[in-house]
Amino acid sequence: MGLFDFIKNEFIEVIDWVDDSNNTVIAKFPDKGNKIMNGAQLTVRESQVVVLMNEGEFGDEYKPGRYELKTQNMPITTTLKSWKYLFDSPFKVDIYFVNTKQFTNLKWGTSNPIIMRDPEFKQVRIRSFGTYTIRVVDAKKFIKEFAGTNPWVTIEAVSEQLRNTIISKLSEGLAEAGVSVLDLAANFTEIGTRLKPIFQTDFDAWGIELGQFYIENVSLPEEVEKMLDKTTSLNMMGDKLNQFNQMQAGIAMEKMADNPGAANTAGLGAGIVLTNMMQQAQQPQQQQQQQNAGAAASGNDQQKMLDLLKQLGDLKTAGVLTEEEFNKKKAEILGKL
């Protein structure tokens, strides 16, 4: 190697960076101890920002474009070096490329359940996960507050810290939303919109902008899910359950009528069945009384009571009911009429 080649290799003439990893946020230009030639060419591509740093202090910042690095167009770096004369001289600075593109499909999720206050269940432990997007909007702040002297920062390191922030603020945001866990799925978009400003407050300290925040799922404790499944099953059955119970009660009374000797031992069961029958017969009357503010029962309700009284008489004749039980139930029915 000749003297000219040695001198040439001591200086950097072309400065650029192409990210082939797709996950790099900060990349320090590998100058290998060489000095930057006065007049060197700097190329900053779209979705990039270049920050020069001289002896630990921030220098000039360059947006996308092509620049010729001279003392005339490097005012901050030149001032830091105290260059008073415009002479062709190499200088030594650190060059940081900051990726300002939007990083998408970043994952967040609760490693442990968080406690949520619920208007229906009071307190519920839930787990949740989703995705979000970010980008760097203040390169100098990001280097100062997050990267420090680290020459290479990946999105995985950034998202790990941001994920911790999201989880710590999630319970606070859900509490402010005031939505029941039963209605969370129908309000994921609205809740995400409410949570976004809460997270952005912390992200601002690092010069990061939260683009989109999505809630993909919220899971409940196993015992709560089982209870909801049972409630759903009962709701699906509707009046079929009452109809089934009435049919079973009718079959039981028919069997007791066919076997008078079992009437005494089944008296208690018959009393329970009759009580249920009276309650079911009284429900339409009670609903009508509530709707009409204490108005008299309709003719249909009176007919039902008379039919019930007739059924009681038949049970007495069959020996299912004693005289005392019959008189007691009859008095109750006549009192309703």
UniProtKB/TrEMBL annotation:
Residue span(s) of domain SPFH: 28-235
Superkingdom of the organism of origin: Bacteria
SUPFAM superfamilies noted in UniProt: Band 7/SPFH domain
Annotated coiled-coil segments of the chain: none
Short name of one Pfam family: SHOCT
Gene3D superfamilies: Band 7 domain
Signal peptide (residue range): none
Record region (Disordered): 279-300
Residue ranges occupied by any SHOCT domain in the UniProt entry: 309-334
Protein's name according to its UniProt entry: SPFH domain-containing protein
Organism: Niastella soli
